[in-house]
Write a structure and sequence with these properties.
Shape: elongated
Strand order of the largest sheet: 2-1-3-4
Order of helices and strands: HHHHHHEEHHEEH
Number of strands: 4
Structural class: alpha+beta
Number of domains: 2
Helix content: 55-70%
Number of helices: 9
Largest sheet: 4 strands, antiparallel
């Protein structure tokens, strides 16, 4: 029993190469599928992720189903991912190539249908994000862009933004000054 669990059915180098190649192909597929791919997984996206893991399983493990072979594949994936994340952190150009750049979907309240279509971003999703930012409608938006991470960044027009604590503090200071001025003038 222990022997079967610990005996790797294929050469370790082959296992590492198989895992690395599948990792690169899956990264390329997600890059091609766009920014939205991992940010807002819907039911269909989740089905694809689960099925994809099953589809590539044999390509990663090959004819080896030993415990040690699985550990080697897992360690390879984790190390590749850690190395890739460090590389992206060190070199912005690599990040732009592998992850992409932000895409503007709203500019001065105008919805860019072509950009949204390219990103598979529905208008209703964008409108919901505007409401989450305390806006009422797309025309309240100065700009909105979808980041490579899949995060939707929305900047409301200054006239539509909520007051900040600093704004309130300035109003309170002005009111206090007006009250002091009125008190100094006395009654009448």
């Amino acid at each position: 029993m222990w022997h079967d669990m610990m005996t790797v059915g294929i050469p370790i180098a082959e296992k590492v190469i198989r895992t690395a190649l599948v990792y690169v192909v899956v990264l390329a597929l997600f890059r091609i599928s766009g920014k939205r791919g991992l940010a807002n997984l819907n039911t269909f996206d989740m089905a694809v992720v689960f099925l994809l893991s099953n589809v590539v399983q044999n390509a990663v493990i090959g004819p080896d189903d030993s415990l040690l072979g699985g550990v080697i594949g897992a360690v390879t994936l984790v190390l590749l991912n850690a190395a890739m994340n460090r590389w992206l952190a060190l070199d912005e150009r690599v990040g732009r190539v592998l992850e992409g750049t932000p895409t503007t979907v709203v500019e001065d309240g105008e919805f860019d249908r072509r950009a949204a279509l390219r990103l598979s971003l529905r208008r209703a999703e964008l409108e919901n994000a505007v409401r989450m930012q305390k806006g009422d409608k797309l025309s309240d938006v100065a700009s909105a862009s979808l980041e490579p991470s899949g995060q939707l960044v929305i900047v409301l027009k200054p006239t539509e933004s909520n007051a900040t604590r600093g704004d309130i503090a300035r109003v309170e200071d002005r009111l206090a000054a007006i009250e002091a001025l009125l008190r100094s003038r006395g009654p009448g």
